[in-house]
Each structure stands twice: as C-alpha cells, then as structure tokens.
C-alpha cells in the first residue's frame, strides 16, 4: 500500500487504492497434476498438490492403473509397487467438489496411459518436469492471463 486513505463522512471504513500481485492456481479438467499421497483407503487415495490443495482419487477412477489385493492394499498394476503415503502420483483433473468457499477438493483420475500413475515410473520413462517447475509454469500462464484481463 502506498499513500494515504480517506475516511468518508462517518463510515468506519478507510478507502484507498492498493496494488497487489496474486498467484492463482486454476486447475482445468483434463490437465495433469502431481500430488503427494497423504492417505490410502479401500475406497480412495488422497493427495496434496503443491503442498496446499487436496486431491481425491476415487478407486473407481483409478482401477485401470491400480488394484486392491486380499489384504486391501492398493498396488500399481504395471509394477506391483504398493501405493504408500509419501509417494507422488500424477493424475488427470476430472472435476471439483466444492462444499464452501474455503473447502474444496480436486477430483482426479488415473487412466492406463504412459503419463499417469506413480511418478517414479513416469519420471524414468518421460523425464517430466518436477512438481515445482510445473507449478511455476502454471503460475506464469495464469499471470499472463491476469495481465491480459487488466489491459
């Protein structure tokens, strides 16, 4: 903030011009994201995207890539690797669940494709961008859109 603000009449608010920079995360359906797995259940897997945004991968949306064994653990079909907390998974944005302004989740799916699944497999095959490089690219793209809207 720069300068001073003015109090008009008897209003308790101060009116002033401000400038700010905002970083906006706007995932779109069909785009790929990377999330760190935080919980594994019989019905779904949860992941944290960029350390802030919750993603929910329902079992019905990941069955082409992962399976459940008799002990109800989830495994990668390709490698037999157990899906565990702390692993990274790349998934496609399928939609969103919004309960309130500050309570929402990304709904993801993992298809049987070369660029989705546990990240160790993906990185080895495709040398994908790191999670932070992907975030930076997304933020830059969104900042350009904001700049265009402001012009």
Topology:
Layout (H helix, E strand, L loop, with lengths): L31 E9 L3 E6 L3 E6 L7 E3 L5 E3 L11 E13 L2 E7 L7 E2 H8 L4 H20 L1
Parallel strand pairs: 3-7
Antiparallel strand pairs: 1-2, 1-6, 2-3, 4-5, 6-7, 6-8
Descriptive notes:
With 151 residues, the protein is of the alpha+beta class. The chain has one domain: OB fold (Dihydrolipoamide Acetyltransferase, E2P) (Beta Barrel). It has 2 helices and 8 strands, in the order E-E-E-E-E-E-E-E-H-H. About 3% of the residues have low confidence.
Defining traits:
about 30% strand; elongated; about 150 residues; OB fold (Dihydrolipoamide Acetyltransferase, E2P); 5-stranded mixed beta barrel; about 20% helix; two-stranded antiparallel sheet; alpha+beta
